[in-house]
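Pair request: fold both.
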Amino acid sequence: MAGTSLLLLIDDIALVLDDVAVMAKVAAKKTAAVLGDDLALNAEQVSGVRAARELPVVWAVAKGSLRNKLILVPAALAISAVANWLIIPLLMLGGLYLCFEGFEKIAHKLLTTEAEDEAHCKELAETLANPDMDLVEYERDKIKGAIRTDFILSAEIIVITLGTVADANFSSQVVVLSGIAIAMTLGVYGLVALIVKVDDAGLYLVRKTGQGLWYRFLHWLGGVLLAFAPMLMKTLAIVGTAAMFLVGGGILVHGLHPVQAYIDQIALAVGALAFLGPLLQAVAPMLLALLFGIVAGGVAMAGSKAWQTLRPSP
């Protein structure tokens, strides 16, 4: 009997772990969009500090991110246990915020001229070169700003994950939420550390002194890394923004059943077309969710601007 009970216990644990693994995989897929934006934002946040201080700054922000999640994960579990009905509204708010943030990025890009961007970069360089500049305070402000940004993005990740495991038992929720929180923190800040050091690695290789084919290869590789670093940042920003609309729009569409039904009808209609029908049927829901996310983001931004204009001055 004892042996049978032990085998049953092991089997139950295996089933729970299997369910947890599946839920974690689904949650990771859903939060991957936020991850792309998280990478770009955090890499941008820690840029501008001295090269020797980049990794310490990333480490400081990573510790702040873990503290954020120590607040967010218990809060999410409490909501799931006490007010489960809040999960869908929170998911909808998180989705709308993703769309708003994505639209704000596009608006900033379209409304800001190249000359204004160059002027900002020049001003930053002059500020850092100023001997009277308190670099310790500047670095501390950078860290605080990055941790604030991380809190918002971490909240989005935790809420999306909570929506994925809302119907699971409490122990599975604890494991999945904790696992995603730790994995996302390690993954994001490990990659951020690599990203901010790509240009330094390129500069190191370019400055290697020596003759021969090997050194020519190192100099070439260094030049490639120096050219690749800004392209990587731009690509992360573009992919992250598109993913925000895709995930945010998808969350909103799934929460608005008439919209979901309408999109399903369109997908079925295009699926009946010759040749490309099956492909269009598979892609249409994703593209329509992305388009819905862009529209929702524009409406949210317009509402935000109107509120800022109409609200009484303090």
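--- second member of the pair ---
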Amino acid sequence: MSVRSGTIGPMPRNRDPLWSAVHAERAALADDLSALTPEQWKQPSLCGQWSVEEVLAHLTAAASIGPARWFASVIGARFDFDRHNARRLADQLGATPEETLARFRRVRTSTTAPLGPTAAWLGEVVVHAQDIRRPLGITTVPPSSTLTEVARFYARKDFAVPSRTTADGLRLEATDGPFTSGTGPLATGPTVALVMAMAGRAAYCDDLTGPGLATLREQLPHPSPRA
């Protein structure tokens, strides 16, 4: 596993350290995907039935739509969030994977987002980047400070994913950083694995240990979320 060094806030022109972290994670993901083969772009991700390219287009869509347009899209989809996400994803798919990547690069420093705290949109990038990287065998993970921010948010609140509900009744402890949360049977492992498990990605439970792991697996949402 390749852990990027650094702390939150690598881009000083943005005064909000969480948005700076979002921008850093987008840049790192774009760099990781710069030399993919056509077959790799079609690889299934960890996010529902979406391919690597489709997840990237979804990230571009999330960085391109503010609250008013988001509400209009949701209403137009009759509050079917899968339909809403599919439509916005299709808007950002390029004619080629290279065009899809170029569109993602253009929103690298965007602070546009639907309603919600910035920590949620940092989590969106972190989780979807790992949805892409793990099936491709890319071992890059965000800095500990970034992962800890997301883990703390996920342990406190259900937002785009039912992360707090997934972690309910468990003690979570990171083995590579300061994150701890909750009381109950222990599940422990790398911070990235705890983040991804709280986000409903069962594959990352394989990286965790402890007497609480069986309960954590049982509390994962089914089917796997696309958020």
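Observation on the second member. The two ends are 24 Å apart (CA to CA).
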